[in-house]
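Design request, tokens follow.
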């Protein structure tokens, strides 16, 4: 979708569909001028209660006499200045717009500063919502109905300032990264295997001279002593890959921020096989990896002045005659041994070696992103990503990035008291901690491998995809990560 600012009278702007935000019970600012051209139709609809005041409500005026626009869609954003309501309104408006036959869209929002929003914030929210709603995963449909919407004009009275222009380019870069993350998540496991993820990383590097990629094979991982990682990919015909992307946007000697992604391209559970119903959704078990690729793409596209390294632990967890057995004991790259009591707790096994590998970068921070536990879904559901950290400043920075973007996280405890659940009588630790606090004990396992640097863990099992009949990747937590990295720029 092509998006551009457009100055001038919105009543005179020709388009197929004009989106008009409403904040509360009555029209304000330029929406009032527009309504005058409409002969007061929008205002009358509001008085009649046709739109209502709850954020996310929409009302289509199929005929818009007096305007150059063919139709008008009113969308409710709730109270003035409430970012949450604005996001709900925009999501509903663009969702409706992308289902409609309208090809050219316009939105009156970008100078909706009357409602108390900063112009750059309005720009970012609008652009992200438009791209988000336009996303489809239709590449395997014989007859897909393409989205008609092809262009969006951001209508405002004056020319866009520098801050707004920057917000537009940043949001376009971010939207592209989010779409990449969603596409990779939605790709099925027979297509998106570890080698496919490695090729995607190489494609990003080809597109940006600031990104370099290195892919480690199983033989190289064996030489590094990554016994935990290799135990997971042992049962699969698809070779595991450790994918390393380096984005250099900051000073040559500035310590990098490292993002480590869980990239289990399909999680059957291994010999500790998962039950059948819903197992298809375990193609999403690489959403951590997908968010690392999406974030790296966004950061490179936006040319952020910071150094970022992505490390992706890509493997497929399959049962077979050469798969790892429950009870097997392996040695990790850190030298610590693990008794694998359940082969379905595989994420922590690939991650622990990737986290040890990250030490070599002398990182300023390490954040891992993983669809790690069903227990995180039980604890927090989909609204919040579970956050764990061994450093309070890092935890605060990530929480703030989540609050600011609406891609929210909630901090969970990493107390020593939970560590005893990982006790094994035959190895330095077990890979499972029992029924209680499953998301916490998974994080506690990772904490044993991250003592060398400030580290945080994002368990995105509940937030990375929508489950059930309407299943699909959400692109989270790319927005949170991008905001976090923007805040690290000096
Ligand atoms: N990928 C799953 C976690 C998961 C399950 C995410 C369902 C989203 C929805 C992970 O590898 C896993 O299987 N975890 C086990 C751990 C258990 C064996 C300790 C789980 O959560 O059941
Ligand atoms: Mn598993
Ligand atoms: Zn898994």
């Amino acid at each position: 979708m092509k998006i551009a600012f457009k100055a001038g009278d919105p009543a005179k702007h020709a388009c197929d569909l004009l989106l008009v935000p409403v904040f509360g019970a009555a029209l304000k600012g330029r929406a009032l001028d527009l309504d005058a051209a409409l002969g007061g139709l929008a205002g009358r609809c509001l008085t009649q209660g046709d739109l209502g005041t709850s954020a996310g409500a929409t009302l289509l005026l199929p005929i818009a006499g007096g305007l150059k626009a063919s139709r008008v869609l009113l969308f409710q954003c709730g109270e003035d200045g409430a970012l949450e309501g604005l996001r709900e309104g925009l999501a509903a408006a663009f969702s409706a717009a992308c289902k409609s036959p309208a090809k050219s869209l316009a939105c009156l929002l970008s100078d909706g500063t009357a409602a108390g929003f900063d112009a750059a914030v309005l720009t970012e929210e609008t652009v992200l919502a438009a791209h988000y709603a336009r996303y489809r995963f239709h590449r395997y449909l014989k007859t897909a109905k393409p989205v008609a919407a092809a262009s969006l004009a951001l209508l405002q009275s004056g020319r866009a300032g520098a801050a707004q222009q920057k917000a537009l380019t940043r949001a376009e870069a971010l939207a592209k990264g989010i779409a990449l993350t969603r596409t990779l998540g939605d790709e099925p496991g027979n297509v998106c295997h570890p080698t496919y993820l490695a090729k995607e990383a190489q494609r990003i590097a080809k597109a940006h001279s600031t990104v370099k990629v290195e892919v480690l094979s199983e033989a190289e991982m064996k030489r590094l002593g990554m016994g935990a990682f290799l135990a997971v990919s042992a049962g699969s015909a698809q070779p595991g890959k450790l994918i390393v992307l380096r984005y250099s946007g900051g000073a040559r000697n500035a310590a990098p921020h490292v993002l480590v992604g869980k990239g289990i391209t399909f999680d059957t559970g291994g010999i500790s096989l998962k039950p059948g119903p819903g197992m298809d959704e375990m193609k999403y078990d690489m959403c951590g990896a997908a968010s690392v690729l999406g974030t790296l793409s966004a950061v490179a596209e936006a040319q952020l002045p910071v150094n970022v390294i992505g490390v992706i632990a890509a493997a497929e967890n399959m049962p077979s005659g050469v798969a790892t057995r429950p009870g097997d004991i392996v040695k990790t790259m850190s030298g610590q041994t693990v008794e694998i009591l359940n082969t379905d707790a595989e994420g922590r096994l690939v991650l622990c070696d990737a986290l040890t590998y990250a030490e070599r970068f002398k990182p300023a921070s390490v954040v891992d992103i993983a669809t790690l536990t069903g227990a995180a879904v039980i604890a927090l559901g989909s609204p919040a990503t579970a956050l764990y950290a061994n450093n309070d400043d890092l935890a605060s920075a990530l929480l703030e990035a989540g609050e600011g973007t609406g891609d929210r996280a909630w901090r969970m405890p990493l107390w020593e008291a939970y560590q005893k659940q990982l006790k094994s009588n035959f190895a330095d630790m077990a890979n499972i901690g029992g029924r209680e606090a499953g998301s916490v004990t998974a994080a506690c396992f990772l904490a044993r491998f991250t003592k060398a640097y400030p580290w945080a863990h994002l368990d995105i099992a509940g937030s990375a995809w929508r489950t059930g009949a309407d299943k699909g990747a959400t692109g989270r937590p790319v927005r949170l990560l991008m905001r976090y990295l923007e805040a690290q720029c000096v």
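Comment from the thread starter after seeing the answer: thanks! The chain has a mean pLDDT of 97.
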